[in-house]
Design goal:
Layout (H helix, E strand, L loop, with lengths): L1 E4 L13 E4 L6 H9 L19
Antiparallel strand pairs: 1-2
Length: 56
C-alpha cells in the first residue's frame, strides 16, 4: 500500500486529514475502512475508488 498525506505537520485536535492510498487489491477497500473506523478518534472515514474521482 502506498499512502500520501496532504498535511506535513502534526495536526491540531479537530483537524481534518485526508490520505490517498493505492491498494494492491481495491476490492478489499471495505476491510481497510472497517479497520480505520475502529481507531479511537477517527471519524468520517470514507473511501473513493479512483474511477469515481472527477478529473480536474
Amino acid at each position: 500500500m502506498y499512502a500520501q498525506a496532504n498535511a506535513h505537520t502534526k495536526p491540531k485536535p479537530g483537524t481534518d486529514l485526508s490520505y490517498r492510498l493505492l491498494l494492491r487489491n481495491p476490492d478489499r477497500m471495505h476491510d481497510l475502512l472497517d479497520e480505520l473506523k475502529g481507531i479511537e478518534g477517527a471519524s468520517r472515514v470514507t473511501g473513493l475508488r479512483s474511477e469515481e474521482e472527477s478529473e480536474v
